[in-house]
Amino acid sequence: MKKTGLTLVAVGLTGLSLGASAQDEAGFITLASTTSTENSGLFDAIIPLFTDKSGIKVRVVAVGTGQAFEIARRGDADSLLVHDTAGEKHFVQEGYGTERADVMVNDFVLIGPGEDPAGLSEAETVEQAFGRIADAEAPFASRGDDSGTNRAELRLWEAAGVEPGGDWYRELGSGMGPTLNTAAGMDAYVMADRATWVAFDNPQNLELLFEGDDALFNQYGSVLIDPERHPHLKHDLAEQWHEWLLSEEGQQAIADFEVKGQQLFFPNAAE
Amino acid sequence: MPDDANAFQTALALIMGGDPDLLGIVMLSLQVSLTAVLIAALIALPLGAALALWQFPGRGVAIVMLNAMMGLPPVVAGLAVYLLLSRAGPLGEFGLLFTPGAMVIAQVILVLPIIAALTRQQVEELHSEYREQLSSMGVSRSRRIPTLLWDARLGLTTVMLAGFGRASAEVGAVMIVGGNIDGVSRVMTTAIVLETSKGNLPLALGLGIVLLVLVALINAAAHLVGETAQRRLG
Amino acid sequence: MNDLRRLPVTAIPSLALEGVGFAHRGQTLLQPLDLRLTGCQRTLVMGPNGAGKSLLMRLAHGLLVPSRGRVSWEGRPPRQAMVFQRPVLLKRSALANLTYALAINGTPRRRRKLLAREALERFGLAALEKRPARVLSGGEQQRLALARAWLAEPEVLFLDEPTSALDPAAIQAVEDAVLDFHRRGTRILMTTHDLQQARRLADDIVLLYGGRLVEHSPASDFFTTPASAEARAFIRGELVW
After folding, report:
1. Does the pLDDT of residue C90 top 60, yes or no?
2. Of C61, C105, C135, which is closest to B136 when you measure between CB atoms?
3. Does domain C15-21+39-235 have CATH number 3.90.220.20?
C-alpha cells in the first residue's frame, strides 16, 4: 500500500517535472563533473557546440570529485568528467567504468596575500613553496573535502616532507570557490586550479604567487560508465559525448575557451 | 566596501533587465516551492487536525517527533531523498533524480512537519473552544476536521507561509537532489551558492535581494487575502 | 411565521437521572441525585453560582459522563440541542452558521439555504445573513444560536444561563424564543439565577445548592409553599449568590 502511494506520487511528479522538457527527453545526458570546470564557464562555452552538432543536451551536475564518483557509481549520471587520474583508474578497475581517456589539463597555482610573508615568489619548486609556508607557519586554507584538488594538495605536502597540521593549517571542507572566498577573508595561502582562480571575481588582497612546476599539472579525464552494471543509462549518447571531447573538434573547442584573455584548459587527448 | 551598493544596483538591474535566464530561475523557484507547499498542505493539514482531535497511545511521542522534525536539516532531507531516488535506490526507476520533481519531494519532506505541527497546535486551540458546541450538535470527529481547518484558516495561512518560507529559503536539499543543473534544476538559492563560489558576490547578493523581494510579495499577497477575509468573516 | 408547525406529537422520551454524581480530581462537585423529567415541561434549574447547575445540564445532555449513577432516556434518545451562556459560533457568516447545522443533521443541500433564511427571519436576523457571526452583538449572537437550535428541531432543548450576559431587550427576545420552542412541542431544561425569569417561564423548578439537589417541585408550589428552608431563603432573596 505504502509503496503504491509513493509510486503514484512519483509518477505524478515525473509528469510535473518533465512537462517543460518532454520533447527533448531522449536527447540529454547527465554529466557528473567538478566545480572547477563548471565555475570557470568551460561548459557554457563547449556544450552548445556539441549540442548543435549532435542534438544531445548535456546536463551538468557540478560537485566535488568524491561526490561525482559516488553519483556515477550509483548510476545517477551517464558520464563522468573529473580530475583525479588515480581515482578514475580505480573506478574503471572496480568495474564501474569501461574506458577512461585523457581530455585536457590545466594546472594548479599557489595563491596568497600580496605581501607574501612566506616568500613563495622566491621558491623554485613547488616542494620549496610548500616548505616555506610550513616554516613560516603562514595561514593556509585547504579544501579539506577529499576533492581532486584536495587530494593533489595532500600529495604535494607529502612530497615537501611536511605533515600539515597546527593552527596555521585550516581545513575548510568547502568547494574551490568558497575556499577562495575564505582565504581572501583571512589572508591565507591557498592552492587553486587556475581555471577557478582566473574566473574568480573576489580576490581582494590575494595574488598568484607561484606557478609552472610540472608537479602542479592537473589532468582531466572522461570516463565511460559500464552499461552492464547500469543498463538504464544512455550509453549511446554518453559515448557520443566522450568521443566528441576527444575529437579534433572537441579538443579545439577546449583550446578556444578563454577567460579574461587567458586560455585555461589545454587539450591533450591521445593521438 | 563597494560591494553592498553594487549588490542593490545589480539586483535592480536584474529585476529591470528581465533577463530570460533569471526569469526561468525565478519561475522554477516559485513552481517548485509552491508545489511543495501545496502537496505538503494537502497531507499535513488533515494530519495535524487529526492529531489534535484523536487521543491514542503514543500521541505524545508522535507530537514530539513531529515538532522535532521541524528542525530537520535540509541537507539530511536532501540526502535521504537522494538515496531514495537514486538509480540504486527503491524509486530509482522513475528517473526523478536531478529534476524539479525531486526538489519538490525534498521540500515536501521539509515543509510537511512544520505545517502539520503548527496545524495541530492551532486546531487544538480552536477545538477547545468549539468542543462542547460541536459535541452538542453531534458532529463526528472526522467531520470536525474540515470544520476546524476552515475556521482556523486565517492562522493556517500564516502556517503555510512559514512552510513556503522554509521551502524557498533552503538550499541544502535542492542542491543535492536537483544538482543545480543550468536551465533544468537551478533555483534562486542554488544560483546564489554558485555565484558565491565564483566569487561574484554582488551578483550573488543581488539574486538574494530578488529572492527576498519575491518572498515579500507572496507574503504581502497572503496578508492582503487574510485581511480581506478577516474583514468579511470576522 | 406565527403559525408554529408543531413537531410530530410523539411522546418525548423521559429523562431519568439515577444516583448521578460528579467528581473532578477527587472533589465532589455534584452529590448523587435522582431526577426524572417527562412530557413537554419547562423546567428551570436554579441555584447560586457553583451550585452545579451547568454541570447538571451537561450531564443530562451527555456532554459529560457522570462519575457515578446513570443518565438514561426511556426508549430512544430524543433529538436535542443546547444553547450556551456564551454562544459558540463558527467563524463564518450568520447564514453559513445555519447551513452548517443543517448539513450536520443531514438536510439535503438544496433545501439548506431556504430553511436557514426562514430561521434567520424568525429570529429577526434576516438583514444580517451575510455578516460574520463573530462580529454580531451579544444579543444577536444568542439569537443566532437559538436559530441554529431551532433548525435542529429538538425534542429537548437545554439552555445554560442563556440571558445572563444580555441587556433587557435581548433577554426578552430569548424568552420569547424559549416560549416558541415550547409551543412547538419542545421540552425545555434551562438554568437561570433570575427569580423573575423563572416565575415567567417555569412549569417546574429544580433548586440546587452546594452541589446538592434541594428541591424539585411544580413552579406554583415552589413559589407559594416552598418545601425546603433553602428554597424559602432563596425566594426571599437571602441566599448568597
Report:
1. yes
2. C61
3. no
